[in-house]
Amino acid sequence: MRRAFELGARFDGWDECFDYATWMRAADEVGVDVAWYTRRERGEDEVFGWDHLDSGLERDWLWTDWRDAVDAGSELEDCRWTPCYDCGVCPGLDLQHQTGTYRSSVRVRVRYAKTGRIRFISALDVGRLWERALRRADLPIAYSEGFSPHPKVSFPDALPLGYASTGEYAELTFAGPHRRRRGLRGAQRRVPEGGVRHAVAVADGEPKLASLLRASCWDVAYPAGTVLDAAVAAVSAAERLPVARARKGDPVEVDLRPAIAQISCCDARACALTLHHAEHLPRDVAAVAVRPTEVDLALRQTDPDLPEPVLVTRVAQGRPAPQGLYEALSGELIEPPQPTVQRHRP
């Protein structure tokens, strides 16, 4: 190693800095046979440099397991689901081997709310909140493999910080069957605000959750006394809704119109929107991800005196329809409060 350093070897853990020829030259100069260390066959009684480390596995068992894999091409099943292989780990750690009852995982999709104070925490912290709630509820959540296992909890669409929602979705993978309703009620009690609104089991072969979330239904609330009728009518009738954006420091103009499936007034000071998700827009239009606040900018271009919204809430996600939006998990039709002008149906 010292000779390789003298020859210029630096930061060899990075592929762009590693030079194989430098290390081979250093080995030749100091008389190290690299092939002797890396390619020769070891015997059963050879002492290795890591033999002083104890992982609990017995050396004889490891050797026998390796020979079985080489000679017969066989591999051992996970001992959580089989009788004990007597490898030495459990007795060495004072553990008792227990065989699991189930091997297949179970996926559950949930619709949950993010309201109150929870809307001011990031999407990453929401994931941690769910992980803690599932752990405290003692649910058999499955974990990923590898050196840093993580709970198998996925969130297909992150909600912008500060937005409220009654239509957020997650997919949970459990290590085995469980009482879904009782277990999720236990997790819900450990979430400060919001909670699970709906949960369904996922059968094998069903489409990914993200493919079911084609559009979002939003409620945009304005201060008391705001009158929205004229601005909403103007946006509904517009053929184009250009809005300025900054992209890599440069101003660009995007058209919001294709992304707006429906827009209407809930009451005098609230606006209901159905927005297509960018990846599910018609193929003949540019895929533009539109936020409700950008539709608010279009409304204020029509009415410059319009105040900023006080609360933006995602009501649900699912498949857009002429008469509203079909919620992704329950299939319930969520209708706008009033008839709306609809454009660019996918």
Helical content band: 10-25%
What is the CA–CA distance across the termini? 63 Å
| Cα radius of gyration in angstroms | 29 Å
Mean pLDDT: 81
Strand content: 15-25%
* Overall number of structural domains: 3
Helix count? 10
Record field, number of beta strands: 12
Question: What is the topological layout?
Answer:
Layout: H1 2-6, H2 20-30, H3 34-38, H4 59-72, H5 89-92, E1 106-114, H6 123-136, E2 153-154, E3 164-174, H7 180-188, E4 195-202, H8 209-212, E5 215-221, H9 229-237, E6 242-247, E7 250-255, E8 260-267, E9 270-276, H10 292-302, E10 311-321, E11 324-327, E12 333-334
Parallel strand pairs: 3-10
Antiparallel strand pairs: 1-3, 1-4, 2-3, 5-9, 5-10, 6-7, 8-9, 10-11, 11-12
Structural notes for this entry:
It is a single chain. With 346 residues, the protein is α+β, with helices and mostly antiparallel strands. It folds into 3 domains: 2-92, no CATH class; 106-209, Pseudouridine synthase I, catalytic domain, N-terminal subdomain (Alpha-Beta Plaits); 213-334. Helix content is 25%, strand content 23%. β8 and β9 form a beta hairpin. The longest helix has 14 residues, at 59-72. The radius of gyration is 29 Å and the shape is elongated. The termini are far apart.
Q: Descriptors for this entry?
A:
346 residues, alpha+beta, Alpha-Beta Plaits, 10-stranded mixed β-sheet, 10 helices
Structure summarized in a few sentences:
This protein has 346 residues and is of the alpha+beta class.
